[in-house]
Specification:
Elements lengths: L10 H10 L1 E4 L3 E7 L7 E6 L6 H18 L7 E7 L8 H14 L9
Helix pairs in contact: 2-3
């Protein structure tokens, strides 16, 4: 689970990322990134599509994405606000496919540190 300092909670924070952030697309997600002026820890906001009907499905997919973000947060550069919009197609695939797709987006947006020698 993501700690409180790693989560976007305020509507105004979400709105700022939507208005000023950069957008990256993939098969299952839309990632919006905004570099903050401070160097605090990166904050994640998770927003499932309104086309995902039923609270059980929305909560399940949010838990999966939150866990992926938790595992990746040490490899992501500090000082970013991220909003991850989850597409309806993500309900049809496994956790591992979601993880691969989200890691691809982190790499594509250049917020993920390059690891390995």
């Amino acid at each position: 689970m993501l700690a409180g300092e790693n989560r976007l909670r305020k509507n105004s924070d979400f709105r700022t990322v939507y208005q000023k952030g950069r957008v990256y697309w993939s098969r299952f997600f839309v990632l919006r990134t905004l570099k903050r002026s401070d160097t605090g820890s990166t904050r994640f906001g998770i927003a499932p599509s309104r086309k995902i009907k039923g609270a059980v499905q929305r909560n399940k997919i949010k838990r999966r994405v939150r866990e992926i973000c938790h595992q990746q947060k040490n490899q992501i550069n500090d000082g970013f606000d991220l909003v991850i919009n989850i597409r309806r197609e993500s309900l049809q695939v496994s956790y591992w496919e979601l993880k691969k797709d989200l890691e691809y987006l982190f790499q594509k947006s250049s917020i993920k540190m390059i690891t390995g020698a």
